[in-house]
């Protein structure tokens, strides 16, 4: 493990879903990073990582947005964000998009080398072992496909959750199986996506948990939406909100009590 | 040269940016280097028989060649079978001294023969696999047509892995036999509701007799 | 078979509402997925095997012309014949010619996907030959006139009841008067019926799991012993095989066999693995008198020169579909052609056309589970994304989708404008959704709200709040 710079300068990649839908996750990420000793900045010149274009085969627009990210973030020590998916786009796919560009490829490779999903960054890079938070309830955790497969995030959130006061973790059956979000897939193939989400909701019920956590807002919006549609009562939070002790607001998709 | 052949090769060469050097392919073939082989250190006979049993074959160990006939007799009796056998023409089988009452024929089997008796070139311990090769006295159909396939082999015929079996085959006189069968259990199918049934087309039962002496 | 891939969406929706299919697909997960996992737990060399398999197959592809020529030379030395075919049409014509030249009447087939790919059964039947599929699953489908729904377990979608009916309907004429309901009895009856066909067949056709350049052998892998009988009893053997099936040596095949059955069915090795080399030798007791190999390209040489090249490593184990959450919900028929699941979503657009099969590369969440289980490390999600890029370049995706992407990207490249617009919109949307916390309907989001609610946003955007708090930004 690399020995960490005790107070690195971190550029927070907020992600568009967090920016638009759940700013609380962004502030939770800032708190966790600052608690770990980081100096956090949020470049204003960020919107989206370009993944919707990339996954739709529109590589030209994806490249343009990648360049925007590169320019906004390449001067930081690290680029970190609360999403395996968006940070995976930067880390795993930007270099491919510029594979034939001798001028830009090295810059993207360098960016890739310092880009991390939040849980992975806290535990693997900053070597955070515990957090100071409490949450009363029985939670279950859904591994987002991109966190699991693009960042090898599996143990890290569980390790941190274990230090949250009052929290009990009940594992989800089939936690390595996709929830059915899949970006534009979920609106292009709603029936298949809906069945995948329904199966995941059934697994959440079977886990006996009262709260569902995950590290990607795409999965969380999909699953919160399915839980609400089916009239279920489980609360849904981003794992960063729980770890930062910022669960005093309504959970995702929750109405007025 | 057929035109389709020329076209296919031309497209392959265009895709690969030119024709491959035949010497590279030939050198790799001649070296036939072994690739990754899983490690294990069990006794070859123990592993070979345990793997076969795990694949629903039955096995027997006998101490010497003169115990083979007794074992086969007992096997036929256990399974309520007539003492009518179609056998391959192989050294280890030729030496067997069949008691009165047995009919043992050396011929190509018919569709309704019940018991086939063969030996094997070798047994592979890694996976519990028999390697059988075709020849004048060794019809391949004997390995597949009869309901019961009884295979007799000596402990000295056991090898660790399929790669060792290839070496053994390369050491035999003559070219690659027309057919090499690797057999690792009785015939089975799971095509009806994903549930295993034995005896789909080949033998319902595979019985391996290992001469341990 | 006629492709039906453009109806993927309707096929899938129908499949989601077939309880028998859904039960079978659940069972597949329990059987194949769990079996595979158990198998690899006992094999610490798994990752090393995958890496080596990948490099051996890459080497073979780099020298494919040389290995094919070596292979052909060895087949000819062994007394066999090799026929080359660029297209399925050419391949069918070659097979028909061989059958006619041999004065054949009946053909017995061992299961092969390339046979499905080139539509050989229809061609043979159309030319008056009697064709019998000998793999039990394929035989069931032949009676039911259906295509396979899985490359390893073709009849996975059929229930025992349906099989009972099919056998009862078709076997009465052969003297079987009882409708059987017991699984063993069904298998035994099929064995009896097919045994006669094996013994009567003039031609035996199989595919090849591998072709060995070193020896000119073709390799087939079965559990039933059907392919093995198909290439032993008839007087003529025809092997149909794609050009990407060749591997250099017996040792290479042995290594790949370690991966194949484990990945496919969770077995260390199948009951039967058979290497056939040429026709029977003069003194041999049995075996075919003629041995033919039809080497088929069908777009593979084009794939070799494209970003889809890694797909040519595929050993057809089916692990990608067994682990695919989409295949696991909609089954193989939804994909509308021979190859389903992730590997099929790469191959089908290449073989039947990207316009016909345009859904397939998109009907994937890019979750990557297939890639992690692929024994030869094919980056399936990347390949599917590559096909999406082709669709975009060829303007095969919808005009509205292209327009939406363009408009969104135009705004996303202007952060101040983007933040101004979203800063206005999100608080309004939050206010509208505050009471219930969600929307059950939303204009332009029908695909989302058809099956789930849309959670309401929290309020002001993160960027707006961050600016207001006067935190640093650049």
Textual characterization of the structure:
The complex is a heterotrimer of chains A (257), B (213) and C (474). Chain A has 257 residues and is of the alpha/beta class. Chain A contains 13 helices and eight strands. In chain A, strand 7, helix 12 (217-229) and strand 8 (235-238) form a beta-alpha-beta unit. Chain A starts with 8 loop residues before the first strand and ends in a 14-residue tail after the last helix. The mean pLDDT of chain A is 96. By secondary structure, chain B is of the alpha/beta class. Chain B is built from six helices and twelve strands. In chain B, strand 10 and strand 11 (197-198) form a beta hairpin. The mean pLDDT of chain B is 96. Among the domains of chain C are: 43-301, Rossmann fold, CATH 3.40.50; 399-468, no CATH class. Chain C has a six-stranded parallel β-sheet with strand order 1-10-7-4-2-3, sandwiched between helices. Chain C has a four-stranded mixed β-sheet with strand order 8-5-6-9. Chains in contact: A-C, B-C. The interface between B and C is large, with 77 and 105 residues. Strand 9 of chain B pairs antiparallel with strand 9 of chain C, so a sheet runs across the interface.
What characteristics describe this protein?
heterotrimer; A: alpha/beta; Rossmann fold; 2 domains; 13 helices; 8 strands; 48% helix; B: alpha/beta; six-stranded parallel beta sheet; 6 helices; 28% helix
Rg of chain C: 26 Å
Strand content of chain A: 5-15%
Q: What distance separates the N and C termini of chain A?
A: 46 Å
Order of helices and strands of chain A: EHHEHHEHHEHEHHEHHEHEH
CATH superfamily of the domain at 43-301 in chain C: NagB/RpiA/CoA transferase-like
Helix content estimate of chain A = 40-55%
Radius of gyration over C-alpha positions of chain A, nearest whole angstrom: 18 Å
Report the sheet-strand fraction of chain C. Answer: 5-15%
Structural class of chain C: alpha/beta
Proper CATH architecture of the domain at 43-301 in chain C: 3-Layer(aba) Sandwich
What is the overall shape of chain A? Answer: globular
Report the span from N to C terminus of chain C.
59 Å
Structural class of chain A: alpha/beta
Q: How are strands sequenced across the largest beta sheet of chain A?
A: 2-1-3-4
Biggest chain pair interface? B-C, 77 and 105 residues
């Amino acid at each position: 493990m690399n020995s960490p710079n005790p107070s690195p300068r971190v550029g927070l990649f907020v992600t568009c879903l967090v920016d638009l839908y759940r700013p609380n996750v962004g502030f939770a990420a800032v708190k966790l990073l600052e608690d770990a000793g980081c100096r956090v900045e949020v470049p204003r010149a960020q919107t989206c990582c370009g993944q919707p274009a990339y996954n739709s085969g529109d590589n030209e627009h994806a490249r343009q947005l990648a360049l925007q990210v590169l320019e906004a973030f390449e001067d930081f020590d690290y680029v970190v964000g609360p999403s395996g998916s968006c940070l995976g786009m930067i880390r795993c796919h930007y270099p491919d998009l510029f594979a034939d560009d001798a001028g830009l490829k090295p810059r993207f490779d360098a960016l890739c080398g310092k880009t991390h999903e939040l849980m992975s960054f806290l535990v693997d890079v900053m070597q955070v072992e515990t957090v100071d938070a409490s949450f009363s309830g029985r939670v279950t955790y859904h591994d987002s496909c991109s966190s699991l497969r693009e960042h090898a995030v599996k143990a890290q959130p569980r390790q941190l959750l274990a230090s949250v006061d009052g929290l009990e973790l009940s594992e989800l059956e089939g936690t390595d199986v996709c929830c059915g979000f899949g970006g534009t897939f979920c609106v292009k193939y709603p029936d298949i996506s809906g069945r995948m989400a329904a199966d995941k909701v059934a697994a959440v019920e079977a886990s006996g948990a009262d709260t569902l956590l995950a590290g990607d807002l795409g999965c969380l919006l999909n699953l919160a939406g399915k839980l609400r549609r089916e009239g279920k009562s489980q609360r849904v939070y981003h794992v960063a909100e729980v770890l930062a002790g910022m669960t005093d607001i309504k959970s995702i998709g929750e109405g007025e009590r | 040269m057929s035109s389709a052949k020329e076209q296919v090769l031309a497209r392959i060469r265009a895709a690969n940016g030119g024709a491959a050097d035949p010497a590279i392919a030939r050198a790799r073939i001649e070296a036939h280097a072994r690739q990754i082989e899983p490690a294990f250190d069990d006794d070859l006979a123990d592993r070979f028989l345990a793997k076969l049993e795990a694949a629903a074959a039955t096995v027997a160990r006998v101490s010497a060649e003169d115990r083979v006939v007794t074992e086969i007799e007992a096997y036929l009796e256990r399974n309520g079978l007539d003492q009518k056998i179609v056998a391959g023409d192989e050294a280890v089988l030729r030496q067997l001294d069949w008691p009165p009452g047995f009919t043992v024929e050396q011929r190509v089997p018919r569709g309704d023969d019940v018991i086939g008796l063969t030996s094997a070139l070798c047994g592979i311990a890694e996976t519990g696999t028999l390697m059988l090769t075709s020849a004048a006295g060794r019809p391949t159909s004997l390995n597949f047509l009869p309901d019961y396939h009884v295979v007799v082999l000596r402990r000295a015929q056991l090898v660790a892995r399929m790669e060792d079996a290839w070496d053994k085959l390369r050491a035999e006189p003559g070219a690659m036999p027309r057919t090499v069968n690797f057999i690792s259990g009785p015939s089975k199918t799971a095509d009806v509701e994903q549930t295993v049934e034995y005896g789909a087309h080949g033998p319902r039962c595979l019985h391996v007799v290992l001469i341990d002496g | 078979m006629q492709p039906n891939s453009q109806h993927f969406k309707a096929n899938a929706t129908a499949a989601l509402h077939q309880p028998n299919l859904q039960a079978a697909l659940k069972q597949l997960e329990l059987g194949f997925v769990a079996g595979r996992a158990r198998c690899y737990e006992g094999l610490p060399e798994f990752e090393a095997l995958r890496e080596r398999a990948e490099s051996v197959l890459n080497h073979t592809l780099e020298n494919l012309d040389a290995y094919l020529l070596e292979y052909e030379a060895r087949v000819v030395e062994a007394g066999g014949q090799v026929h080359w075919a660029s297209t399925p049409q050419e391949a069918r014509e070659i097979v028909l010619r061989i059958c006619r030249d041999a004065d054949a009447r009946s053909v017995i087939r061992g299961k092969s996907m390339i046979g499905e790919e080139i539509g050989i059964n229809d061609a043979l039947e159309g030319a008056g030959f009697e064709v019998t599929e000998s793999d039990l699953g394929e035989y069931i489908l032949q009676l039911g006139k259906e295509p396979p729904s899985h490359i390893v377990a073709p009849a996975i979608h059929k229930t025992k009841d349906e099989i009972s009916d099919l056998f009862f309907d078709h076997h009465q004429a052969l003297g079987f008067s009882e409708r059987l309901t017991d699984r063993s009895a069904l298998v035994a009856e099929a064995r009896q019926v097919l045994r006669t066909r094996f013994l009567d067949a003039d031609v035996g056709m199989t595919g090849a799991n591998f072709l060995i350049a070193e020896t000119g052998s073709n390799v087939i892998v079965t559990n039933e012993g059907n392919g093995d009988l198909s290439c032993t009893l008839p007087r003529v053997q025809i092997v149909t095989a794609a050009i990407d099936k060749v591997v250099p040596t017996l040792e290479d095949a042995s290594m790949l066999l370690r991966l194949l059955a484990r990945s496919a069915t969770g077995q260390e090795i199948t009951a039967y693995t058979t290497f056939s080399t040429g026709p029977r030798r003069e003194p041999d007791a049995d075996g075919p008198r003629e041995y033919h190999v039809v080497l088929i390209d069908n777009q593979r040489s084009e794939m070799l020169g494209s970003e889809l090249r890694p797909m040519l490593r595929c050993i057809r184990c089916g692990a990608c579909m067994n682990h695919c959450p989409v295949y696991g919900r909609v089954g193989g028929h939804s994909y509308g052609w021979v190859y389903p699941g992730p590997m099929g979503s790469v191959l089908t657009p290449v073989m039947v056309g990207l316009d016909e099969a345009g859904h397939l590369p998109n009907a994937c969440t890019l979750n990557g589970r297939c890639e992690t289980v692929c024994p030869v490390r094919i980056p399936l999600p990347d390949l599917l994304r590559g096909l999406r890029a082709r669709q975009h370049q060829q303007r095969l995706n919808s005009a509205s989708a292209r327009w939406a992407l363009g408009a969104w990207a135009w705004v996303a490249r202007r952060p101040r404008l983007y933040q101004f617009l979203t800063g206005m919109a999100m608080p309004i949307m939050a206010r509208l959704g505050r009471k219930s916390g969600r929307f059950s309907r939303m204009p332009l989001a029908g695909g989302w709200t058809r099956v789930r609610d849309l959670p309401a946003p929290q309020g002001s955007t993160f960027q707006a709040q961050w600016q207001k708090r006067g935190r640093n930004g650049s």
